[in-house]
């Protein structure tokens, strides 16, 4: 078995594609992509914050203080259009003449003097992902509303210092019982688990296709089969090779992201990245690696079985592509709000590993549940390895 393992590993190392997928991608490409995506998102958000919104106020004489405050706001620019009705203003926004319109009722001043509530309308395109414009509008409106409240209190002969107690009799102050590590783990735990498990799968995919279907296509599988070695040892050697590349990809990626994160954090003089790294104990990292072992074994056995069944390299890739979606589904379940690690979720494959990694990052993992997850994952991995060995014994599979 070990002779086959070292032979397959040596062939993969000599293959330039393997070096790209297993080493270069995790060290350079993935961090570069994450950096580019982060930079683009930050640039887009900053651009949206600085954007100037063209606006129109209908019946602005009914609220001169508000109109003046909006006029002097740095993110708003007043425009003149003939539209006055709601339908006309919507059409003006669609034609890109204005960005936002505010309709103040014609009887606004009268209702305010009578201490009646008034409905204003703000019309704008709400499909934008960065809805900073409405926040800016609320800033101006809040100051205007506070002035109206004080004016109304004077009409009622009440002290304006009592305004906070009248408007909001009870003020709730939130006190977080979670420590810094738990907060950090909650934010990045699910993302880290998602990345680790997906990397284990992707790290196993290419070697599996090459070792199984690639051997068939190159015509070297028959040479291996006539060697004085059992088929069980042969398939286990191939399995161990795929398992090694899967774990190696995940480990290199995590180390690379951590290293680049420390470098970027040091250059930007922020302590956020350092706090994240320092919050993870060595024992937690060991447990994460221990949980990734049976997960990677499951992927390796399943992918090798698919690769052995496929006639060609391309056919194996076609089979593996839908499998990626199947792997993503339990990962998405683990990232859903309200999904916690319990005795029930600990028995759900892949989801349980993602939830366990998240709990380890938070420092709230229960050892009993970790043992249950490890045992169930090992059982599934053993069953898949046994199936893969049985699959390799079938002549109709090897030479279909």
Automatic annotation (TrEMBL):
Residues 16-384 form the ABC-2 type transporter transmembrane domain. InterPro entries: ABC2_TM. It comes from the Bacteria. GO terms for molecular function: ABC-type transporter activity. It is a multi-pass membrane protein. Keywords: Membrane, Transmembrane, Transmembrane helix. Its main location: membrane. Gene3D superfamilies: abc type-2 transporter like domain. PANTHER family: ABC TRANSPORTER PERMEASE (PTHR43471), ABC TRANSPORTER PERMEASE PROTEIN NATB (PTHR43471:SF3). This is Sodium transport system permease protein.
């Amino acid at each position: 078995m070990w002779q086959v393992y070292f032979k397959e590993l040596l062939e993969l190392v000599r293959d330039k594609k393997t070096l790209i997928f297993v080493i270069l991608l995790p060290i350079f490409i993935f961090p570069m992509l994450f950096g580019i995506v982060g930079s683009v998102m930050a640039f887009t958000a900053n651009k949206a914050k600085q954007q100037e919104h063209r606006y129109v106020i209908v019946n602005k004489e009914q609220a001169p203080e508000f109109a003046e405050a909006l006029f002097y706001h740095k993110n708003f620019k007043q425009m003149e259009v003939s539209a006055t009705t709601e339908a006309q203003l919507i059409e003006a926004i669609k034609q890109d003449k204005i960005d936002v319109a505010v309709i103040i009722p014609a009887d606004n001043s009268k209702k305010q003097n009578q201490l009646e509530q008034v409905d204003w309308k703000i019309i704008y395109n709400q499909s934008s992902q960065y809805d900073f414009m409405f926040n800016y509008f609320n800033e101006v409106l809040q100051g205007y509303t506070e002035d109206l409240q004080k004016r109304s209190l004077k009409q009622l002969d009440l002290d304006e210092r009592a305004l906070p107690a009248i408007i909001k009799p009870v003020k709730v102050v939130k006190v977080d019982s979670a420590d810094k590590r738990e907060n950090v783990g909650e934010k990045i735990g699910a993302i880290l688990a998602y990345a680790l498990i997906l990397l284990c799968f992707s790290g196993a995919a290419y070697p599996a296709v090459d070792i199984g279907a690639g051997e068939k296509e190159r015509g070297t599988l028959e040479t291996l089969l006539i060697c004085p070695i059992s088929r069980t040892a042969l398939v286990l050697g191939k399995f161990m090779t795929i398992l090694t590349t899967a774990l190696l990809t995940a480990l290199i990626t995590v180390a690379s992201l951590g290293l680049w994160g420390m470098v970027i954090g040091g250059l930007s003089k922020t302590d956020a990245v350092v706090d994240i790294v320092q919050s993870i104990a060595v024992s937690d990292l060991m447990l994460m690696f221990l949980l990734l072992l049976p997960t990677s074994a499951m992927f390796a056995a399943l992918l090798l079985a698919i690769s052995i069944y496929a006639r060609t390299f391309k056919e194996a890739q076609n089979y593996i592509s839908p499998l990626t979606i199947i792997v993503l589904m339990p990962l998405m379940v683990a990232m859903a709000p309200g999904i916690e690690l319990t005795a029930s979720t600990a028995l759900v494959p892949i989801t349980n590993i993602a939830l366990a990694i998240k709990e380890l990052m938070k420092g709230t993992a229960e050892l009993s549940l970790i043992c249950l997850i490890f045992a169930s994952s090992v059982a599934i991995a053993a069953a898949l390895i046994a199936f893969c060995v049985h699959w390799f014994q079938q002549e109709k599979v090897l030479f279909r």
